[in-house]
Amino acid sequence: MEAPVLNNANEQVGNVELPDEVFATPVNEALLWEVVRMQLANRRRGSHDVKNRSEVRGGGRKMWRQKGTGRARMGSRRSPLWRGVGTIFGPTPRSYAYGMPKKKKRLALRSAVASKARDGELLVVEDLGLTEIKTKTLAGTLAALGAQNALIVVPGRDEVVEKSARNLPRVKVLPVEGLNVYDVLKYDKLVLLKGALAQLQERL
Predict the structure, then answer these.
(1) Contact present, 109 and 184 (Cβ < 8 Å)
(2) Which of 45, 109, 160, 194 counts the most CB atoms within 10 A of its CB?
(3) What is the DSSP-derived secondary structure letter of residue 126?
(4) What secondary structure letter does DSSP report for 155?
């Protein structure tokens, strides 16, 4: 599979061979759903908490005698049956995180990248043309590429690109080692710098 290589003015400056073992992978939508669900679960803080009957304010004295009043028997002011006291089965802090086999996660990432290539949403760019941290310059480049809503994949940590993109609400920059299924599917375009292609093939 071949793809055109573009410059920052959206002009074709060459072609690049996309490895079939990555970009021709059959798209497994069920597996993509599994991995996205896992990623979102792992991002949950799980810090929700309510007080139970042992934590609310109030004494342990019996409210009235057991028999003879005509009222229901009641043992404590902290009983969950009363208004404003502890919750019986309320949420407590917990972790929602769980894992998946590495092979499934790798296959899902290949499937996500292949879906972008299949749908024509993959752009291989030679250079973004940034010599300094400049949000306006990057925004203009992405507009020329038709990728205002994009995930930019760079070979490694690039402070110039990252800081230029951080004020663009629909743009995210990730190094190859940080690429994940959720972010690939979240953004409309996948902008892959030519220098990151070999690293992506090695990872997947």
Answers:
(1) yes
(2) 109
(3) S
(4) S
Q: What is the pLDDT of residue 203?
A: 87
Domain at 2-27+100-203, CATH class: alpha beta
Q: How far is CA 60 from CA 51, 54, 79, 143, in A?
A: 16, 10, 9, 68
Is residue 162 within 8 A of residue 171, CB to CB? The reply is no
**Cβ-contact 126, 80 below 8 angstroms:** no
Of 122, 127, 125, 201, whose CA–CA distance to 160 is shortest?
Answer: 127
- Cα–chain center distance at 105: 14
**Residue ranges in the chain whose pLDDT is less than 70:** none
Place of tokens 């998946």: 100
Question: DSSP code of 85?
Answer: S
- Per-residue pLDDT of 131-161, as tens digits, reads 899 999 999 999 999 999 999 999 988 899 9
Q: What are the residue ranges spanned by the domains of the chain?
A: 2-27+100-203
C-alpha to C-alpha distance for 111 and 118, rounded to whole angstroms? 10
State CA 144 to chain mean position distance. Answer: 27
Confidence (pLDDT) at 134? 93
The CA radius of gyration of the chain, in Å to the nearest whole number, is: 27
Per the listing, tokens 């663009």 go with: 168
